[in-house]
Amino acid sequence: MPKMALSHFEMAILFSLLTSVALGITGKTGRQEQIRYAAYCFGSFVLALFGLGWLMYFGHR
Amino acid sequence: MTTEVKKDITAVEPAQSWFVPVLLTWVAPGLGYFLLKSPERGAAMAAMSIVMFLLGLLMRGAFFEPQTGDLLTTVIYCGGWVANLANGCLYFLAKAFGYNSPDVAGHVVDYGTKFLVGSGLINILAMVDVFEIATRKKS
Q1: In terms of pTM, does the model score above 0.90?
Q2: Domain-by-domain residue ranges, chain B?
Q3: Chain A contact for B131, CB < 8 A?
């Protein structure tokens, strides 16, 4: 079985994407609302990713 | 007047039994949706759960085994094990085919373990969704 090796950032984005789609599907009814909610969740994930990334960067200096 | 009321009552479909769809969703991710005639939703949830599980396997993520000790150890290991079990047939198939990756240090394996847990959590989300659809709390 091949081994997958991605960077921290790529894996976090992949995780965010899959989780956001699942949250969009289960969280809302109606195609438009689901897409909007999934996009909102993904944006929140990415924002948290960058925010916590910078927080850890300054925390370790 | 009486006829109208009777019509309204018959128009509302009775809630289905939730047990079988929820059980099917646990066994095979997304399957319960097909029973409730939501194939698009079922296919999308199955795809998310299966893709995340396969990515977890490709990253050589480790499965949790239940362990007890202090509170944090119990919560992490037992919770992780329950989330792994929530993958249903995917988990049992991986075990049956002898998948047993050791939990070694490194960010790829660590993310893989989280992907395997995340996949189970997505399936739990799907089970709750199927329950709500079956009991008519959600359309």
Answers
A1: no
A2: 16-134
A3: no
